[in-house]
Amino acid sequence: MRTILVVPVSKNVGLTTVALSVERALSTQLKTCYWEPIGQSMDTIYHIDDLLSQNKLSTFLEETALSFQAFMTQKKEIDLCVLKGLSYRVHRPYVLDINVALARAFNAQIIFVAAPVDENLFDETILRQIELTAQFYDPDGAMDRVLGCIINRSYQSKTELEPLFAQSAVSLLACISPMKTGDAVTLSADWISALNQKPYKARLTPPLFNATLFCKAEQANKTIVLPEGEEPRTVQAAIICAQKKLAHCILLGREGQIRSIALQYHLSLPTDYLTIVDPVQIAHKYIQPMVELRKQKGLTAEEAEKQLTDAVVVGTMMVQQGEADGLVSGAIHTTANTVRPALQLIKMAPGAQVVSSLFFMALPDEILVYADCAINQNPDAEVLADTAIQTADSAKQFGLEPRVAMISYSTLGSGAGPDVEKVQKAVELARAKRPDLSIDGPLQYDAAADPIVGQLKAPKSEVAGRANVFIFPDLNTGNTVYKAVQRTNRIFCFGPMLQGLRKPVNDLSRGCLVEDIVYTIALTVVQSLKIEGESD
Question: How far is residue 493's CA from residue 497's CA, in Å, rounded to a whole number?
Fold first, then answer.
């Protein structure tokens, strides 16, 4: 679905009237709807004031995206949604910043609304103001987001003003006479038809990703076990998840210690959606099931009892026995401590050839998926192919339409050698197994990510320049790239999320924040839905 954000260039342009008029005009050829992300009541504006004063723009965007999700669930088969930006009539210095942020958050194209001052004629001064404003929405100058401008309350016709716009990067779409304010704006039928045919890069933006994630998690009503229940960040994350109803969390630990941590951070432990379980008190009931699971490896009851002194092993058995839908650990444990029990006790999902990992990379304009960045050091072609398929399926589950690039130092035969041949073979294997997926490679990173470079290096590729899923040839490359992108751009990453297990177990970084744990719990909940569906 395409989105168009109608925004003001200055105050007193009749923004609401024009935005509604644009939606009516577009509805002559398209199935449209109209939505206002921001109400004009002062309570709403005061709320934005408060969030911005705390540097919480992302919170505002996530709240808005959640409202949009709720609104769109009532709509069916919509081609285009017209959004109205924030008006300058609220008298706030951040109007432009908020509108630019909304455009990014909703992957929206832009229509500007301008108007002459009082009864003056439109002139070059107003045009320059339009062009300057456009730079904030398309800072690279490409103007691929900007659709054009509508002049409201204009005493000049579109024909009269077109020469003024002849050398401008911003197109003149329509002029509305002062006598016709409130009527549907006249947009060319050919322009509307061309708009519908024009390629539109669908992006899943971070706010929309978060809204989708939290909506799915809240509706799922799943239970996630947290073996590091006495770790302060984990306790705080469990409380947040309970408050948001993202998951029923089981904290493994001593109740007195956990309550002491909550008291230390001035937090109240919810009575709903959160349970404290002492792993020492329940470990005994998993001894025999664990021996049975590992009998081919010769595990004895004594050895099982010893291993069950580790809360991660207890939590893993809870998942294995169906007492929890997933597990999240790693705030104070290594990846091996989290993954090894899962491989031994939960084991791989039917049909899975490998356990791999992915990261969701929250770039400013869209979510990208990187794999494998945490598990497989030197995968062969078969493992790479399976990782690509797993990652594409995971991406689709979380709302992306996967376009998978298999990354190498060579683009489609520009280089040679065993490393390139491995990636080429992986592409062939993945395509043979899943012809329904859009997969291409070998592709260099720039050819995969940048439309201009992609067109130059791989003009016939459906993935080059448009990739949103990146499969790296080895762990050395994947881990290095994800950390370089994360740190250089100061972006938020979700993961690693493990793929290929019979039930979801996910690892945390020991440097994780409370927010990281909350998102990983929500990811684990949504992941459990896919696994549950596959087992039905």
Answer: 11
pTM score of the predicted model:
0.87
| Per-residue CA distances from 516 to 227, 303, 520 (Å) | 16, 34, 6
Cα distance between residue 202 and residue 76, in whole Å: 18
Q: How long, in residues, is the chain?
A: 536
pLDDT tens for residues 69-121?
A: 889 988 888 999 999 999 999 999 999 999 999 999 999 999 999 998 876 77
Per-residue pLDDT tens digits for 11-62: 989 999 999 999 999 999 999 999 999 977 889 999 999 999 999 999 999 9
Distance CA 143, CA 166 (A): 15
pLDDT in tens, 444-466: 999 999 999 999 999 999 999 99
List strands edge to edge, sheet with 492-499: 438-443, 403-407, 469-471, 367-371, 356-362, 492-499
Pairing between β-strand 146-151 and β-strand 172-175 as defined by DSSP bridges: parallel
What kind of architecture, by CATH, is found in domain 204-347+507-528? Answer: 3-Layer(aba) Sandwich (3.40)
User: How is residue 259 written in tokens?
Assistant: 């309550």
Tokens of 87: 């008006």
Separation of CA 297 from chain center: 41
Instruction: At 263, give phi and psi (nearest 5°).
Output: -65, -40
Q: What is the pLDDT of residues 384-419, one digit of tens each?
A: 999 999 999 999 999 899 999 999 999 987 778 899
Tell me if 2-202 shares its fold with 204-347+507-528.
yes
Phi, psi of 200 (to 5 degrees): -130, 115
Which CATH class, in words, describes the domain spanning 2-202? alpha beta
Instruction: Give the start-to-end residue ranges of the domains of the chain.
Output: 2-202, 204-347+507-528, 349-500
Q: 3-class DSSP state for residue 303?
A: helix
Bridge partner residues of 84 (DSSP): 6
From residue 435, alpha-carbon distances to 420, 428, 432, 478 in Å are 21, 10, 6, 25
Question: Looking at the domain 349-500, which fold is it?
Answer: Rossmann fold (3.40.50)
